[in-house]
Amino acid sequence: MINKEYSLILDHNVFIVWKPEYNLGIPIIDEQHRGIVTIINSLSFGMQYDRIKTTLKPTVDMMESYAQIHFQTEEIFLELMDYPLIEEHKQSHQELTSKLNSVGISSLLNRDPYQLMDFLKKWWIDHICTKDFEYRNYLHSE
Asked: Whole-prediction pTM value?
């Protein structure tokens, strides 16, 4: 039986709940996307519990490192599957990397986690749940 004092902690909702329909069918890419969701959810948790002083910089650092690894991995798979829109996808990665760097710096200088969270939300919705689904559809149409 769970102690009632801890029910608030256990009832806490994450910002993004992973759903099976987010899977692209490439295990390492899916795992990395879950990692990105974990980073976003950790930032959200820190914001809710007023821990920005200790979570903002590590979140920016993790996202920058993780994005680099993830984009390299994804581009290898796009090359292997001979994806016809690979150059456009690589360009979107370069734009996201540049924007992440500038938003990260600005968020840290202004101590504003909301700026970073807004960017990460857009990244999740506009890139992962839209652009990446385009190559998923290509992969599964073969």
From this structure: 0.87
Q: Look-up: residue for tokens 């004092």?
A: 5
User: Which of 31-38's residues contact partners 24+ apart within 8 Å by CB, and which partners?
Assistant: 32/66, 32/69, 32/70, 32/73, 32/74, 33/70, 33/128, 33/132, 35/66, 35/70, 36/63, 36/66, 36/70, 36/123, 36/124, 36/128, 37/124
The verdict on residue 11 lying in a domain is no
List the domain range (segments joined by +) for residue 105.
28-141
Q: Which residues fall within 8 angstroms of residue 27, CB to CB, at 6 or more apart?
A: none
Give the tens place of pLDDT for each residue, 42-92. Answer: 999 999 988 998 999 999 999 999 999 999 999 999 999 999 999 999 999
**How many separate domains does the chain show?**
1
Assigned domain for 4 exists: no
Residue 12 dihedral angles phi and psi, to the nearest 5°: -60, 130
> Which whole number is the average pLDDT over 86-114?
97
Structural domain contains residue 1: no
